[in-house]
């Protein structure tokens, strides 16, 4: 058990730093931190250092590693603590450094450390959404007969890589067996089989503030996935002729402004998520999270996934979104909102309320 209070006793809060891994949403995070007056640190792979050195105006300190697995090393942890650093995890955090390091790194984390283990397991994720009373797609067990399109998802934050669509049990089993044989997953039980939902995909960005006791809608996006989206430009007969099997690897994000009549339901589902994390993973969600959904023709929303951290779709709103502007009346990215929350907590002398 990490004693965050004891670590913070040796921190100079007037010299607090915001640290993150150099990937995913790191540029947004450090940009927001600088706007709020914080020192910034990125932990960066040696072969990526040249790129992040182009942003020296945003980054005060580089901690260079040869492998992401070095993040929990004594040297890296010591440097972070000497700099009074708070780690801001993003969507690649657990995938890169591993669950054990993510959970046990002896540095204060902005966010809910206890959620990492849930996020690493597709079945636990869907169970949490179900407990929240949020509508989800049908989940198939491996002994059920599949007679309609399903999407099969792998554990962890893989950005859609390896996901596939099938319409019969044999194809699902055979494909997952090849993943086991190739070492992509340890067993087929790690994957999850969901009904394939028809509608518009929509990803909602939220920020829960323990300091203000408020849930904010920060934005929304649509993900552009290769090559499932690229195939839409090809005639069906061409796709069938060349035998392409579509994948869902995310390559980018597209801004989305929602019908205002949908916002009450979206906020309600976000509030349900906040409450279920408070109940089952205390102290509950802190800061950014995302509910990932499909909206059907009747405006029904089913949530098929969530992320308990800042998501890449927020990168399209580095200058703020239409929704974040409504709360703050100034440009407010999710990266800056994280820094603002830390700043407010320091001012109110309740920094322990937002760190785990």
CATH architecture title of the largest domain:
2-Layer Sandwich
Radius of gyration, in angstroms, nearest whole number:
21 Å
Per CATH, the class of the largest domain reads: Alpha Beta
Strands side by side in the biggest sheet: 11-10-9-12-13
* Main sheet: strands, sense, barrel: 5 strands, antiparallel
Keywords: ATP-binding, Ligase, Magnesium, Manganese, Metal-binding, Nucleotide-binding, Purine biosynthesis
Protein name: 5-formaminoimidazole-4-carboxamide-1-(beta)-D-ribofuranosyl 5'-monophosphate synthetase
Function: Catalyzes the ATP- and formate-dependent formylation of 5-aminoimidazole-4-carboxamide-1-beta-d-ribofuranosyl 5'-monophosphate (AICAR) to 5-formaminoimidazole-4-carboxamide-1-beta-d-ribofuranosyl 5'-monophosphate (FAICAR) in the absence of folates.
Cofactor: Mn(2+); Mg(2+)
């Amino acid at each position: 058990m990490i004693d965050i209070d004891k670590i913070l006793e040796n921190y100079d809060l007037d010299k607090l730093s915001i640290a993150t891994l150099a990937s995913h949403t790191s540029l947004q995070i450090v940009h927001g931190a600088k706007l709020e007056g914080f020192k910034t640190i990125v932990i960066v792979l040696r072969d990526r250092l040249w790129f992040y050195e182009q942003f020296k105006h945003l980054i005060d300190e580089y901690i260079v590693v040869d492998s992401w697995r070095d993040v929990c090393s004594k040297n890296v942890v010591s440097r972070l603590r000497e700099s009074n650093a708070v780690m801001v995890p993003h969507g690649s955090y657990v995938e890169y450094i591993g669950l054990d390091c993510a959970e046990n790194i002896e540095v204060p984390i902005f966010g809910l450390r206890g959620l990492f283990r849930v996020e690493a397991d597709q079945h636990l994720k869907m169970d949490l959404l179900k407990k929240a009373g949020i509508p989800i797609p049908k989940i198939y067990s491996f002994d059920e007969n599949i007679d309609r399109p399903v999407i099969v998802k792998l554990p962890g934050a893989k950005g859609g890589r390896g996901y596939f669509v099938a319409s019969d049990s044999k194809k699902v089993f055979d494909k997952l067996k090849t993943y086991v044989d190739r070492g992509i997953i340890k067993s087929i039980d790690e994957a999850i089989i969901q009904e394939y939902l028809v509608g518009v995909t929509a990803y909602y960005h939220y920020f829960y503030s323990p300091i203000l006791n408020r849930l904010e809608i920060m934005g929304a996006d649509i993900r552009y996935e290769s090559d499932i989206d690229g195939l839409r430009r090809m005639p069906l007969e061409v796709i069938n002729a060349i035998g392409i099997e579509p994948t869902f690897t995310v390559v980018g994000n597209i801004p989305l402004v929602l019908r205002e009549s949908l916002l009450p339901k979206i906020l309600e589902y976000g509030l349900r998520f906040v409450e279920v994390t408070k109940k089952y993973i205390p102290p509950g969600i802190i800061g950014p999270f995302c509910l990932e959904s499909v909206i059907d023709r009747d405006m029904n929303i089913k949530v098929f996934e969530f992320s308990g951290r800042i998501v890449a779709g927020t990168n399209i709103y580095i200058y703020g979104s239409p929704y974040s502007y409504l709360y703050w009346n100034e440009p407010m990215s999710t990266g800056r909102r994280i820094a603002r929350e830390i700043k407010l907590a320091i001012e109110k002398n309740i920094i322990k309320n937002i760190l785990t």
